[in-house]
Structure formats: structure tokens, C-alpha cells
Amino acid sequence: MPVTSRKPGVYVVKSDGPAKLALSSLVRAEGFSPCTFDDGAAFLAACELLPPGCVITGYQTGGMDALEFLGRLGAKPVFFPTIIVANKGEVTQAVEAMKAGAATILERPYADDLLLGAVRSALAMNVPMEARNAHRLAIASLTPREHDVLCQLLDGNTNKVSARHLGISPRTVEIYRASLMKKTGVGSVPELVRLAVDAHVKC
After folding, report:
1. pTM exceeds 0.85
2. Do 26 and 57 form a contact (C-beta atoms < 8 A)?
3. 3-state SS assignment for residue 4
4. Pairing state of beta strands 82-86 and 64-65?
5. Which of 11, 44, 82, 112 is at 20 to 30 A from 101, Cα to Cα?
6. Where are the domains of the chain?
7. Which residues partner with 105 through β-bridges?
8. Please, what is the average pLDDT of the chain?
9. Helix 144-154 × helix 159-166 angle, to 10°
10. Comparing C-alpha atoms, which of 203, 202, 147, 156 is closest to residue 177?
11. Which H helix or E strand runs over 184?
């Protein structure tokens, strides 16, 4: 689903039409920008192009449970705090979802103010995360060889040592370093290292 506004959004991921409409109406009345998806797969397919925001979903939505959804979302180069709305019988499983990264779990029935408070808290998490999202996207754009050179930097290796480990020339390592800095928008190797650490680069 295309989203043209860059304002933080509230993404309602529900297969239940009436419940989806009710949640959307509630958050819209409070001045938020709701956008709906019929299931987790649809949101995951679109999330990398969406403005920052938070997700409201059930423990089970469209054949995907919250653990799978959170796992697949966590593998994306984006950050969307997720609010899980659980039925009473799902609370035990929903606790596992919290361990998997859910921002909040609400048990039905819940007061509207409780949900809206959870939305505000989740959206507030995006303020410090927007820069981290940009870092993760920049890291995700690297070629495999650029990633290799970055890992050599994180190990503290010089161009000469990096070249020996990678089987390329020191001059080629310099070229890759320059490409890394251009793609990530940093001005120095220490900045690049801090960005990579902040983005949780895995080597």
C-alpha cells in the first residue's frame, strides 16, 4: 500500500475488517496517520518504503503469528515498534512476543486511552531510531566486498593487513573504503566505525 506522507504513521495489521476499522478510526481521531494492511506478509513486503511509525497487530494475523512477524521484521533494515493486541488465552504466547522484540502487549478488553498511550510511547521510540534506520539502510546497500572491507576496519586492520586477508591490493582496499564512506555519508574512518557499530554490523 503506497504512503505519500512522511509523517510518522500507525500501521494497523489486521485481517479482521471491523477490528481494523475500529482501530484505524480510534488512532485517526487522536491525530495520528493510520494505514491498514490485511496481514503481516503485506506489511513486511512494503515496510522498507514506509515512513517511520509503529505497528498494531494481533497475536495471529492472516496465518502469521507474532513471533514469526517480529522475527521477519527484525531482519529488515528498518525499525517499527510493534504493539501486540492479544486475547486472554494468548497472553502466554504474547509474552514470548515481548521477548522477541514487541514494544507493548495489550490484553483485550483494554481502554482506548491505554492503546493510545501505547501508540504514543511506540512512536516516541522512533525519534532516536530514525538515524539508526538510515545507518542500517546504508549498511544494507553495501556490496559483499565492501562489507568485507568494513569488517576489516572493525577489526582494526590497516589497508595492508586488510588487503592480505582479502587477497586484494592495498590500493583496492582504499577504493572500497572511499566507496564505503560515500555510501554512508561519513567523513572519517572513526565515524564509519561508529556507524557500523550503531547499525549492529555482523561479520
Report:
1. no
2. no
3. coil
4. unpaired
5. 112
6. 9-130, 141-198
7. 84
8. 85
9. 130
10. 147
11. helix 170-184
